[in-house]
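Tutorial handout. Part one gives the primary structure; part two gives the three-dimensional structure as tokens.
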Amino acid sequence: MRTLAIAFAIALAWPASAPAQRRDQLVELGRDLALLQEEVRLMNKTQTERLTQMEETLKAMQEQIAAANRSLAVLDSGLKKRLEDSMVKPLSGVTGKVDTLSQDFGYVRETLVEINTRLAKMDQRVADLENTIRMMQAPPAPPAAPASGPPPGVSAKSLYDDALRDKMGGNFDLALQQFTNYLAWFGDTEMAPNAQYYIGEIHYNQKRFQEAAAAFDRVLEAYPANSKTNDARLMKARSLAELGDRAGAEQELRALIKAAPNSAAARRARAELQKLSGSRGRRR
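Part two.
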């Protein structure tokens, strides 16, 4: 409409004296403008229809997306339910069984501890009984050396050497008698502590631990400062341990470590003290 108005205004403004040819041109121009307007209208209509189609297509796509989301939600819910039915519930049952087994294992362990405690007590009773039987079966102490003095020709050195040789050769009874004579006749000599110590060793090797402990204790009492003091205290502790007196054994070992901390006997005492402490912990 606007185009026709423009064409009409141009026609009115054109001089009346214009040739007829020019009027025809204006009329033709008006028709062209009308056709152009119609084309524009058709183009607008086409674009409007396309926009409408695009909106409908977009709406359909949104509906499809929403439907797909709903399907995914249903699928996710189904998968969760299947996962719970196939794994979570069976695993909960397995967890319950594991808890039950753990409780049963705890009961078994407590029972084993109790059994071990009873066995330890029985072992101690058996050890005490064995020590009693051993003391009953032990041979009588060797006769004391005559108080009148050594026989003619017997010197402290020869008697000590003979006793030591018999001990090394396994003639324990003879060596025991000779060391006993040595102490009776030469008890104030330099080798007297050694003789007393070897008497304890002979008793210990023959498993007469009560006599051995007394002999080693005699070294500590009669000869407190000599080369055999540390070894005598260590062997006394071992004898007490064999007799089942662990407290007494630990006391002797600690006394040895305190008195001679850098000695070889103290190093062995530390190892045996640790062993005794560990053994007592297991028995408890």
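Part three, for discussion. Residues 20-137 form the longest helix (118 residues). The chain has nine helices and no strands.
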